[in-house]
């Protein structure tokens, strides 16, 4: 089993200096029309603001094959799979668009060979009111419907995920999957209720994700930390105070990742033998950028931090962080 790697670039031409084969790329930018078309599986995600161009490149030393299923693109090697899909979310019902996008991205997906370990969901107008509820909650309804078949039938565990706002009209979903020969652990945060068990006041369909996924094959390890915000139990805390929200968020990330928590899941790893690959920091109000950056740089290697502006799934949340360690 080869290695799964990720690197982040701000210059497109640097992508091609990677030593390995590209599975797929997530591109974050402000203007879709100004973005270069890549001859690789990639997903453009339009954000309100980005600190600089962001090319998040997933790659491996294994041989990669490319394929397309309808509007879903795929890069797949023997042990790793990257897929991406977009669905116009400016018409029709948000729940149906989400269900359709999920059915699309999971079509002909071989659950006997691969397990999804990470989903990213970029949801336009995430805090706006849709047909009968907030857009995010309607998205959760559609995702639950699609998952009912794919996850309940396959007795699957929900992977790590991010569900966050984006600009433009497209709902974008990206996934990463790893061969079942690797061990996979879904990890929860001891001071948060699992999102899939949130009470219905946060939406009739709960958000189907785990707080983190840890993947190990022999000496290869990778930890995917989900989008993490200032939530304790199931409640948002420190409404209106971005600094306190950020401290709580960083505590939540550290609680997930600490030795004690990993041991609770029989994960045989120490937090100190893994290195940060990146953290993404989603900032609701761009005026908070400098404040947030100063705090993040005190807590994480500043060369590994990516900042962008987007709305967060709950109106009152001002910041969200996700990360990868390996
Ligand atoms: C939360 O903790 C914040 O719907 O896939 C974080 C990560 C959040 C993933 C998702 C939502 C999702 O509930 C929101």
State the share of residues found in helices, binned by percent: 10-25%
Average pLDDT value? 95
Major β-sheet, in short? 7 strands, mixed
Percentage of residues in DSSP E strands: 35-45%
Strand order of the largest sheet: 4-18-17-19-14-13-12
| Shape assignment | globular
- One letter per element, helices H and strands E, the order comes to EEEEEEEEHEHEEEEEEEHHEHEE
- How many alpha or pi helices? 5
Ligands bound, unique: 3-(2-carboxyethyl)benzoic acid
Our measurement of the CA-to-CA distance between the termini, rounded to an integer number of angstroms, reads: 15 Å
Briefly say what this structure is:
By secondary structure, the protein is α+β, with helices and mostly antiparallel strands. 20% of the residues lie in helices and 37% in strands.
Strand and helix layout:
Elements (H helix, E strand, L loop, with lengths): L3 E6 L11 E9 L12 E5 L2 E2 L3 E7 L4 E5 L2 E5 L3 E9 L5 H12 L8 E11 L10 H19 L6 E7 L3 E10 L3 E5 L24 E6 L2 E9 L2 E2 L2 E2 L5 H16 L1 H6 L11 E8 L5 H11 L5 E5 L9 E7 L1
Parallel strand pairs: 2-3, 9-10, 17-18
Antiparallel strand pairs: 1-5, 2-5, 4-18, 6-7, 7-8, 8-11, 9-11, 12-13, 13-14, 14-19, 15-16, 17-19
Helix pairs in contact: 1-2, 3-5
